[in-house]
Predict the structure.
Amino acid sequence: MTPKWLFGHLLVLAVVVSFTQFGFWQLRRHAERSARNEVTVARAAAEPVALDEALAAAAAEAADGLDAAQALRDRRVRVAGWFEPEDEVLRRPVSRDGMPGYHVVTPLRLEDDPDGRRLWVERGWVPDAFDAVPVAEAAPPEGRVEVVGWLRATTAPPTGWVAAIAPRDPPSGRLTTVAYLDPERLGDQVGGPLVPAVLWLESVVGSAPAVAAQTLPLPPEPSEVTSGPHLGYAIQWFAFVLVTVVGYAALLRRVTREG
């Protein structure tokens, strides 16, 4: 009960409480990841719906408090229209099997859309040697096409202190290579208003046959469904709590016996 030992008791108590809270925080992260995986699997297995139906469903979930990007992510849709490769851009950086490259992102002019909207379609990966658009080696089908894919949120440059270290796109001028698919920045270089979403291509069927020898772009990879490291981290924090308690108890026992 001396001041030195009282300080030691309080220090150990603070460590135990902190490590326990870290462990439960990781358990909550694990539960959130599991719930998100269930949604991802369910959306991937669902039949594709119309674009506006998917956007309305995502907006309703966002209004209920869900993060807007998560509400939109991986919803499977089917759209029809015409690709406009003259306005496509390359999103960077995207590595594939350890190789640097880009994702080819091409606007799709939507069929029967009264506003003439365009939807960004992320068609897939090309090596970084193909750094000029339109990418002739990865040209989209000509004519009317039907596209099936998964929705993702558009992206915008970060703000605050992160902006100082994050990649940047030029503030003006026509962009061909971008770090962010920002509708405000890219809206002026396409032929119509942009849908506030990006479609990751799953399949495309066109009226004109595709070039059989064309192997690019490589299709985008679907969302990875893994449990993540959170459960392992939680076990580690609880193990630290056990080691601290047992070690401190052994220390007190030794000091008491010596006294």
Q: What stands out?
A: Strands lie at 49-50, 76-83, 89-91, 101-110, 118-127, 144-152, 177-178, 194-206. The first strand starts at residue 49 and ends at 50. The chain has a mean pLDDT of 90. The chain has five helices and eight strands.
